[in-house]
Structures are given as C-alpha cells and as structure tokens.
Amino acid sequence: MIDDFAKALPRRKSVGVPVGNVMVGGDAPIVVQSMTNTDTADADATVAQVSALARAGSEIVRITVDRAEAAAQVPHIKERLERIGVTVPLVGDFHYIGHKLLTDYPDCAAALDKYRINPGNVGFKAKRDTQFSQIIDLALKHDKPVRIGVNWGSLDQELLTKLMDENAESATPVSASAVMREAIIQSGLLSAERAEKLGMGRDKIILSAKVSQVQDLIAVYADLARRCDYALHLGLTEAGMGTKGIVSSAASMGILLQQGIGDTIRVSLTPEPGGDRTREVQVAQELLQVMGFRAFVPVVAACPGCGRTTSTVFQELAQDIQDHIRVSMPKWREDYPGVEELNVAVMGCIVNGPGESKHADIGISLPGTGETPSAPVFIDGEKVTTLRGPGIADEFKQMVLDYIEKRYGNGTKSSSDAA
Are 201 and 55 within one domain? Predict the structure, then answer.
C-alpha cells in the first residue's frame, strides 16, 4: 500500500539508559542533546551557556572536562544550575586523561550524569585496557552510564592496522573506506563488550560511531544497528557551518531516523562568527518535528512566494508569528499544554492559500498581486472571517493568540482532541 511509504520503519528496539532525569533508548522519545564550547574552567560562561541550551530545548548537555581546573569546577557548575532551576543532565567529555581526572576529582565524578569515553584515546598500548577499566570502575562506583563514542579522526590505530593487514591478505579485499567503517564499528562493540565484562549493564551503555561524511555515517550506523541493541547516539563528527552543516545533518540523520535507527541526536554545527550556540538545538528539534517523531513548537507553514506574491506582508507575518512562538514557548509549555502541536498557515495568494489554511488549525490567505485586498481566515477547517485594511497582520496575530488561549488554556488539549 502507498500509505506504508508515508511512515517511518518501526523504531529499532534498544536497551533504555537513564541519563540523570532523561531516558535514552528503549521506548523513550528521541532525545535532543548539545555541547558547550566554553572553557569549563570558566564556571560563569559555562553556566550561562548550559542554561541557554537547556532553555532552547536541549535535553542533555555535554561539557568538556580536559584538565584539573575544569574538573574542579564541574560540581560548582552543577550546583549553580540547580539553584536557577536548570536540571538538564550534564555529560563529561573525556579524552586522554579521563581516568585520572575522575579519580582525582570524585566530586566531579559524582556531579556528572554520564561519562563520554573515546576508545581511540583513552590510552595506548598496555595502558589502554587499564585506563579504560579505571573509568568503567568509577562509573560503576558512582552509578553513572557511559557513552562509548568512537570518532573516525581518533580511531584506535592498532585495530585499524590489524584490519587493514587482514584486508590486504584477503582473497576478496574491500575498499579502505569500508575497512575504516568496520574498524569504527568493532572499536565500539569491543569496548562495550569489555565494559560488560567489567560489570557494567547494557542499560548503562550508549554507543556512537561518528564520521564526517554523510554516506559513511549512514553505512556505519545501519550496520552497527544490526549488530547490537545498545542505545545509539547519532551525529556527524563535525557537520560544518551554516547551510552545509544543516543539510549534512538532516540528510544523514533523516535517513537513519526513517529506518528506525537512533535514540538521541546532536547536530554538530560550527557556529558562525557571533552566532548563537543554541542554533544546533533548534535544528535538531526541527529535524525531529518535520519527520513527525517529536513536537516541540507550533508549526508555521508559509508559501515560498512567486510572481503572484509581490507583497512581503505574508513573509513578514509568518516571520513575526514564528519568532513570537519561539520566544514564548518556555512559558507556553507551562500555561498551554499541547500547544506544540499547533499548526498555523500564512499563505500569500489565492492559488493554494485557502486550501492550505483549511488544513491548518488556524490559517490566513493573504491577497496576492491583483487580488481583492482581503484575507480569509480559517479555524479548524472553517472560514470564520475575512480581514481587510492595513491592520490585517496585527489582527491575525491576535487571533492566533486568542485561539491558543481558548484551545489550550484549560490544559486538556492533546493529540487525540484534534483527531
């Protein structure tokens, strides 16, 4: 049936992992997470950015713990966040000396909600297994989950060399990129197996296998998902800046999510000069929302414009409403439960305007070039009024706010109510 193609595949069954007050995997919704770019030793800057990311909707925030000064500040950062009502789980990102920092700073180990381990640099040669074991033992001591995060740029070179040598001797050798992908997968699975042998349950282990190229990411996670039931963290190692980063993240993760793969996502955007770090949270939310997996904010649909829409009124109105919604959402979530499911349409001419507006919860069809200067408004599929004159935009914005108050203000709105 053609309807089958309009649905994502059933979600892959994974083992749920509690990270602070957030569940990752199992039957839990796909989780949005982010990472700070502040120096964690600067507690003021880190508290401010974690708070901003959490307010933007990040459900887990990762912070760098790279040296003693950073580790010493982690418990103070956690305490200050809790004092201002920010309870987002904090993940410590460790490379090279995580075993030492977690040992020397037990308050840091206790304050963090999860430890991220990179098996490619947790230690080298004889020290690797010992230092990996130390981190797992500390996670068990403090009852913390771990993410075993493999990155192609810091891949275990011993494992990669071994697989390259085996491939060279094979009667049916594969490409170097295929060997690299297999090394990434094996690094994660072997590390998880080692963690289990040390006593860590599967409900304490999350895996990630990050690369920079879209096709490689899809191939790695599709294979990894078939070979284990650990919760999976999706994301490119670095997506890039601006449009390129957004498209790369959406293209790669969108395909995997449609296949039912992925329990938590991070969009690793490079911020533009002076840009806002919270942009990566917005993109992650929008990806999940447009694919129908989560609802975070009301959707504002607007036509792209053409020769019939020489006026910019519909564009300005759509932007005004969208900006107002995003600014208002922290309060609206409390005052108007279910408001994130609202659909608003702001259309620019008579061709598709009335039809699109009827399919939204509330919509307006503004006049295009040469059309009568009037704008019919539709609520729940029915035309309720026609706006005219220079105040059309302000009148419609007020109608949207009135609609939200009426429909969601009693706190009983749900998806089933709209069916």
Answer: yes
Q: Strand, coil or helix: what is 155?
A: coil
Q: Of 97, 104, 42, 51, which is closest to residue 73 (Cα–Cα)?
A: 42
Instruction: Give the containing element (helix H, strand E) for 31.
Output: strand 31-35
DSSP 3-state of 2? helix
User: Domain ends where: 241, 271, 290?
Assistant: 290
Domain co-membership, 122 together with 228: yes
Structural domain boundaries enclosing 115: 2-290
CA 80 – CA 33 distance, rounded (Å): 20
* Whether residues 96 and 196 fall in one domain: yes
> Both 343 and 221 in a single domain?
no
Instruction: Give the chain's count of helices (H) and strands (E).
Output: 14, 17
> CATH no. for residue 305?
3.30.413.10
Q: Cα dist. 384→357, 399, 402 in Å?
A: 12, 11, 14
Helix H, strand E, coil C: the string for 163-179 is HHHHHHHCCCCCCHHHH
49 and 78 co-located in one domain: yes
Clarify whether residues 306 and 213 are in a common domain.
no
Half-sphere exposure of 29 (CA within 13 A, CB side): 13
Report residue 353: phi and psi, to 5°: -55, -55
Q: How many domains does the chain have?
A: 2
Q: What are the pLDDT tens digits along the chain (419 aa)?
A: 556 666 789 999 999 999 999 999 999 999 999 999 999 999 999 999 999 999 999 999 999 999 999 999 999 999 999 999 999 999 999 999 999 999 999 999 999 999 999 999 987 777 888 999 999 999 999 999 999 999 998 999 999 999 999 999 999 999 999 999 999 999 999 999 999 999 999 999 999 999 999 999 999 999 999 999 999 999 998 888 899 999 999 999 999 999 999 999 999 999 888 889 999 999 999 999 999 999 999 998 888 878 776 667 778 888 888 888 888 888 898 899 999 999 999 888 778 788 888 899 999 988 777 667 788 999 999 999 999 888 888 899 899 999 999 999 974 544 434 33
Of 273, 290, 307, the residue at which a domain comes to its end is 290
* pTM for the full predicted model: 0.90
